[in-house]
Amino acid sequence: MIIALDFPTPADALAFVRRFPHPEELFCKVGMELYYQGGTAIVQALQSLGVRVFLDLKLHDIPNTVESAGRIIGALGVALTTVHAQGGSVMMAAAKRGIRDGAAASGVAPAKILAITQLTSTSPTALRDEQQVAVPLPESVNHLAQLAATSGLDGVVSSAAEVARMQPGLPDDFLFITPGIRLANAVHDDQVRVMTPDAARRAGSRGIVVGRPITQAADPVAAYQHIKSLWEEPLNE
Ligand SMILES: O=C(O)c1cc(=O)[nH]c(=O)n1[C@@H]1O[C@H](COP(=O)(O)O)[C@@H](O)[C@H]1O
């Protein structure tokens, strides 16, 4: 279970993490908001507290630019990172090369790379009318997942609702990481394709990303524990 540290400043993010008695047990996501303020220093500050870091910068550019950015990300020793599958197979392969080379140069393990398929804020209607994608949304997600796998990536980000359809034909250890997690009857905010933590696990999700339901809770540590217990519930049945 991954907490999205969508905070405006590094100080806010570190204060949040320090509320937890064992930060070294946390897996946290640094996304664009926090990274654009805190840069590599916030990644290193979290790592020095023992936090496992998912650096989510959603790279989507020409292959050469993505490869160069990948070298910098690779050198950081983060556990996970992201690129957009819609950047194409050549771009995804370039990201992998860059991350592998950056990691080798600084003697750390290369980050596993996830491809963003269709954002969980995208509705089927927006996919059809704005992106002019003619196939149904689960089919588009499935196609991009297959492309990510053949490009050598380690997994995908999608809604948990699409995981079951993607599984056949993909490696057993392929990572299905699913944001858009909400408790039953909770507000969806800007998310469209949502699922509860326990339903996501049952649907085959390998990891959930949870932000506001934890970070904006009155008691974030209690909210984290509650969502974690729901996420683990299907395993205990
Ligand atoms: O790459 C992501 O993590 C991501 C992909 C996606 O399709 N949807 C999505 O919500 N996310 C991220 O997951 C987190 C979800 O946050 P909450 O909606 O606050 O739980 C945010 O940090 C998003 O950037």
Automatic annotation (TrEMBL):
<keyword id="KW-0456">Lyase</keyword>
<feature type="binding site">
    <location>
        <position position="6"/>
    </location>
    <ligand>
        <name>substrate</name>
    </ligand>
</feature>
<feature type="binding site">
    <location>
        <begin position="56"/>
        <end position="65"/>
    </location>
    <ligand>
        <name>substrate</name>
    </ligand>
</feature>
<feature type="active site" description="Proton donor">
    <location>
        <position position="58"/>
    </location>
</feature>
<feature type="binding site">
    <location>
        <position position="191"/>
    </location>
    <ligand>
        <name>substrate</name>
    </ligand>
</feature>
<dbReference type="GO" id="GO:0044205">
    <property type="term" value="P:'de novo' UMP biosynthetic process"/>
</dbReference>
<comment type="similarity">
    <text>Belongs to the OMP decarboxylase family. Type 1 subfamily.</text>
</comment>
<comment type="pathway">
    <text>Pyrimidine metabolism; UMP biosynthesis via de novo pathway; UMP from orotate: step 2/2.</text>
</comment>
<dbReference type="GO" id="GO:0006207">
    <property type="term" value="P:'de novo' pyrimidine nucleobase biosynthetic process"/>
</dbReference>
<comment type="function">
    <text>Catalyzes the decarboxylation of orotidine 5'-monophosphate (OMP) to uridine 5'-monophosphate (UMP).</text>
</comment>
<dbReference type="GO" id="GO:0005829">
    <property type="term" value="C:cytosol"/>
</dbReference>
<dbReference type="InterPro" id="IPR047596">
    <property type="entry name" value="OMPdecase_bac"/>
</dbReference>
<feature type="binding site">
    <location>
        <position position="29"/>
    </location>
    <ligand>
        <name>substrate</name>
    </ligand>
</feature>
<feature type="active site" description="For OMPdecase activity">
    <location>
        <position position="56"/>
    </location>
</feature>
<dbReference type="Pfam" id="PF00215">
    <property type="entry name" value="OMPdecase"/>
</dbReference>
<dbReference type="InterPro" id="IPR014732">
    <property type="entry name" value="OMPdecase"/>
</dbReference>
<feature type="binding site">
    <location>
        <position position="211"/>
    </location>
    <ligand>
        <name>substrate</name>
    </ligand>
</feature>
<dbReference type="InterPro" id="IPR011060">
    <property type="entry name" value="RibuloseP-bd_barrel"/>
</dbReference>
<feature type="binding site">
    <location>
        <position position="182"/>
    </location>
    <ligand>
        <name>substrate</name>
    </ligand>
</feature>
<comment type="subunit">
    <text>Homodimer.</text>
</comment>
<feature type="domain" description="Orotidine 5'-phosphate decarboxylase">
    <location>
        <begin position="1"/>
        <end position="227"/>
    </location>
</feature>
<feature type="active site" description="For OMPdecase activity">
    <location>
        <position position="58"/>
    </location>
</feature>
<dbReference type="GO" id="GO:0004590">
    <property type="term" value="F:orotidine-5'-phosphate decarboxylase activity"/>
</dbReference>
<protein>
    <recommendedName>
        <fullName>Orotidine 5'-phosphate decarboxylase</fullName>
        <ecNumber>4.1.1.23</ecNumber>
    </recommendedName>
</protein>
<keyword id="KW-0665">Pyrimidine biosynthesis</keyword>
<feature type="binding site">
    <location>
        <position position="212"/>
    </location>
    <ligand>
        <name>substrate</name>
    </ligand>
</feature>
<feature type="binding site">
    <location>
        <position position="120"/>
    </location>
    <ligand>
        <name>substrate</name>
    </ligand>
</feature>
<keyword id="KW-0210">Decarboxylase</keyword>
<dbReference type="InterPro" id="IPR013785">
    <property type="entry name" value="Aldolase_TIM"/>
</dbReference>
<feature type="active site" description="For OMPdecase activity">
    <location>
        <position position="61"/>
    </location>
</feature>
<dbReference type="InterPro" id="IPR001754">
    <property type="entry name" value="OMPdeCOase_dom"/>
</dbReference>
<dbReference type="InterPro" id="IPR018089">
    <property type="entry name" value="OMPdecase_AS"/>
</dbReference>
